[in-house]
Design a protein that fits this description.
By secondary structure, this protein is α/β, with parallel strands linked by helices. The protein is built from 15 helices and nine strands. The strands form two sheets. A six-stranded mixed beta sheet has the order 2-3-1-4-5-6, with helices on both faces. A three-stranded antiparallel beta sheet has the order 7-9-8, with helices on one face. The structure holds guanosine-5'-triphosphate (GTP) and magnesium ion.
Length: 473
Amino acid sequence: MDDFPKPLTVPVFAVLGHPNEGKSSVVSTLTEDDQIRVSRIPGETTESTPYTITIDGKDIIRFVDTPGFQVPKQALAWFRKFEGNPEHVVEAFIEVFKNDPFYADECELLKPVAKGAGIIYVVDGSRPVRDDDLAEMEILRLTGRPRMAVVNSKTDEKDYTTDWRNQFRKHFNSIRIFNSNTANFMERIKMLESLKAIDQEWEQSLSDVITAFQKDRQRRNDLACVAICRAIEQSLLFSLSESVTAESDPNAIKEKLNQKYQAQIKAFEAQMFKKIRSLFKHHLFEYLLPEYSILNHDLFSKQTWELLGLTTEQLVAAGAIVGGTVGAMIDTAAAGHTFGIFTAIGGVLGAGSALLSGKKMAKNRPGGIRLGGDNLQLGPTRNLQFLYILMDRALIYYSHIINRPHGRRDMMDGQEKKPGPKKGFSTEFTSGQRTICSKYFKTVTGRSFIRDKKAVSDFEEFIKAVLDDLSGK
Ligand SMILES: Nc1nc2c(ncn2[C@@H]2O[C@H](COP(=O)(O)OP(=O)(O)OP(=O)(O)O)[C@@H](O)[C@H]2O)c(=O)[nH]1
Ligand SMILES: [Mg+2]
């Protein structure tokens, strides 16, 4: 426990309290560290351990997790009788009792305080105030250190917050409700704001910490935005093709392409989710979205497939025949290029339709392009709805990840028990926002070689604004 220097170079706060009140959970949430041990069994934390928040390689603030008070009444009796310089009461206590097993936990938890740390006293507001708590509060008052009390209610069944507040007023410079299992980014910021109030000396450095937190959040959002836009673009542009002969079984090829297409879209998404998860430092928690069932239909079901496929107009324009089943799209390729004349397959291919022969198609081609054999092609998507599905899934994932405090340790099976949002975010988009999306869609999936840079940057800005909005709440 000698690893933070004196005088303190960054603000340091020791998180103190009764065993099992949620001290480690509070530290875990404040520091976004899900590796801190939290347990239902009291006495989990036995040593005072500092956890430092580092931004851009610089230490900016430190919270020290500590064991709970074991014998507060006896310790208080000594504090009350102490006749030396009150400024050194904590050092004196440790000096007297450092080898006494009876006071081992008290010495350990007071060590960071002796070294100049401020105090965050954590209580469970869902249980009543007891004598031991009053003794703990009195000890903390006698330390003379800047101190804040935090109510971290473990259940909603009972609420003794008012009783706690009444006691806190006598002993603490600041009081805050902070729930380690629900607190989001804004609540962490508010917690830091409250800490400013307990000691003027730390006001400036805590303001700097808040600015660093906000900048860091912005940076993470920017990187999350890049990951989301990249996955979306990859998914929109993705296509697969396979050459087809008169002997081929179109249904088998269709099925094969379909499987590959799904797997790749899922892979793009999985990569993006992984990036978001690591940006927000989650090692334990993983939010699992149902497989493409958002908006009540399976992305790869026949119904969605139709949605993703061609419009009647496009089919007509391509001079195609709509088969009985909607499936893969067919293109005729030359030298690896595809030209976007699609049709849906029915019995067409099997019959070796002249419509799809290279010769016939050549007539419809822009001049000079030689055609090879028939190809069955799947993607790129032609349906704007696909973009909204991808956006919704990315935003739902992002909002679950950012709203999950690191101190929360239940439901580790990965799937949230409570249902997710009924509808996606996209249903709430304004018509202006939809225009941004559709312009982006057109430019990304369009065949033009000139990319509308503004349409792309408008879309990226829009995603960024949505992320900022979601994380600012
Ligand atoms: N539901 C809920 N459970 C919480 C909350 N805070 C803590 N817990 C649970 O309470 C138990 C104790 O939490 P810890 O953070 O380990 O408590 P502690 O004060 O560090 O305990 P010791 O290290 O044993 O002194 C764990 O099972 C936590 O998951 C909360 O806000 N809500
Ligand atoms: Mg603990």
